[in-house]
Structure of Protein-lysine N-methyltransferase DDB_G0278427:
Amino acid sequence: MSDSEDVVKVESCVLGTKGHWDSAYDRELDCFEETGDVGEIWFGKSCLKTMCKGVSQLSELNKETSKIIDLGCGNGMTLIELSKLGFKKLDGSDYSDKGIELAKRIMEQEGFNHINYFVDDITDSKIEQYVYDAVLDKGTFDAIALSEDRDRMKQLYKQHVEHILKPDGIFVITSCNYTENELKLYYTSPQFEFIKNIQYPVFSFGGSKGTTQTTLIFKKK
């Protein structure tokens, strides 16, 4: 399968548009101002904690020195959890300024001040080459794959990860739309090699077994 081909056939929808996320985070920001509620945590708290615990156990990363970015960080709860696990050098980027504003407010509420949140768009990114020891994605690739121009956007996204990740850096991707095999097929390449997956509880339904999300870890060659 070439990079330009879809991993699976999906229809575009509002989840793949910036307007949707601006509106969603605007509502969540208003709600946070009124109630202190951080808003939706994609794939749930259990997935978030399991994924972050798996990241914290990677021998390739050092909590004090490894520089990590969460692409499409939204409300920033992934980086809050990593902060609680002891990681010090954390960035979060999102193309929604409302999402970044919400993430900053939540960081203040949680009592952290070392997470660097900023607005950035992969189609016109200002991030320099070979900056990060690890790139995290929890649902961002899923949303990109729902955009109207998804073939081009998926290719730009993959190139962006390659651009900002250091050689031997780690790419951690969590998806609820793609299976382990589909993600391996798309990302395993001359640039990336599959390292391992993060295990989630398995459920049974109709004689089949599976999980509601998949997290794979790749290393940049």
Residues 14-220 form a domain with the Rossmann fold fold (CATH 3.40.50.150). The CA atoms of residues 29 and 102 lie 6 Å apart.
